[in-house]
Amino acid sequence: MNHEYSVVVVGACLMLLPPADNTADYSDLINSVLLSQLAASQKVKKSPNTDWYDAYMQLLDGYWLRYARMRQDWAVTEGNVESIDEWIKDAISHNDTEIADSALATLQQLAQLSGAEPGMVLLRAHMPTTATLPGESLVADETVRLLVIVASSPTCISSVFVEFKTHVPLEPNPLPQRFEAQNVQGSVCLRYAKASLSETLYKPVREAIASKVAARHGAHVLKMTQDL
Q1: By the 8 A CB rule, do 1 and 224 touch?
Q2: What is the pTM of this model?
């Protein structure tokens, strides 16, 4: 990667961190986001009708205080061809003008990565993984979820979440994958938020959260280091 941002994969999340900072300084962010993802996925597993993002934010809101939020739902227009990275970049460019140029440049590089890059393999592993033969469709629509978090500091973040259903298998690098109207069931849902970490709320649970997710880091967290 270049030096626009350091990129850390945390489950189904691409986390963009200022390159001059030490990744260890973002342990609170990494641990709380990982725990919130694990909790949300467990709730959805037990109750499939649960809204994953709401369950994720229910835990995260206990420590990260949102001061801006937005939701957008739309259907892919017949004749259009759209991609996940375009949806995310559009949300950032409209809501985060101060960081848009550097964040968009990093996302563009990520979209050009090989799906064999270890960080992309890990990210893809936490998205739908139903095996299919080339050219085959999935037996049923699967829900695709992706988080992108852009950190301005260890205690200040912007986030974009995208969710949609498709019968088309995801490519090894799903960011630039193109989707037409017939590929997406229903609407694409995008959530955007800005939040800051409350030290008062997080300090009492910092060690407990770190302990809960420590054993999960190996299978969920990886810093991307490949140069383009």
Answers
A1: yes
A2: 0.93
